[in-house]
Amino acid sequence: MKKCIFFFCIFIGLLVLVSFGVDQRTEVKIPDTLVVCEEVEVNYPQRSTIFNAPLVAPPFLGSSYIGFKEALAFKESAGDYFRTNTLGYLGKYQFGIGTLQLVGVYNATRFLNDPVLQEKVFYTNLSRNKWILRKDISRFVGKHIRGVEITESGMLAAAHLAGPGNVKKYLRSWGKLNAGDAYGTDVANYLRRFSGYDVSYVPPVQNPKI
């Protein structure tokens, strides 16, 4: 009898030990409301400046006037106030002597060494170009030429590159007359690259001066 009790206790002990080695986890059922049964379409913004337009200014500063001028400056000179290129264009926005004189600046050395003056010249020249292009802005903004939507900021950037007269020629010829600079950048490129910025901060002014 004692032997039976002894063996019975050993048997119970073995069962307890074996039970610790058995995986006691149970299957977790996902609620029906959380089960994805079909592919889900992900909709990204269709008109996003960050992804649709080439990245030209680190960091991205938005689509305001500040974003516009800094993006343009980065393309022109990498934002360097003191740069002079091989053709003699000066400063952060790469102005030629003739354009500086149009807005009342006649000392190139002072201009190149004065960042505040450079910002004033850029704003003043933008106002001048906006006045010259005012009728074309009303006529062409929102239209498409050679697959590119025409915007006010694109027109003003292109005018900075090639002059407002060449922007008019491009628009009125529907892209057939596409002027460019000595480095191969043309009006169409700037119309596309700098589209979609809000430049309403800058008013059109006839013959503005510093």
Describe the protein in words.
InterPro entries: Lysozyme-like_dom_sf (IPR023346). With 210 residues, the chain is mainly alpha-helical. It has a domain at 62-193: Lysozyme (Orthogonal Bundle). Helix content is 47%, strand content 2%. It contains ten helices and two strands. The chain has helices at 2-20, 49-52, 65-77, 97-102, 108-112, 115-132, 134-140, 152-162, 164-172, 187-193; strands at 144-145, 148-149. It has a two-stranded antiparallel sheet. Helix 8 packs across helix 9 (164-172) and helix 8 runs antiparallel to helix 10 (187-193). The protein is globular. The relative contact order is 0.12. Mean pLDDT is 81; it is low at 20-58.
Q: What is the CATH fold-level name of the domain at 62-193?
A: Lysozyme
Q: Give, in order, the helices and strands.
A: HHHHHHHEEHHH
| Broad CATH class of the domain at 62-193 | Mainly Alpha
Number of helices: 10
- Number of strand elements: 2
Strand composition percent: under 5%
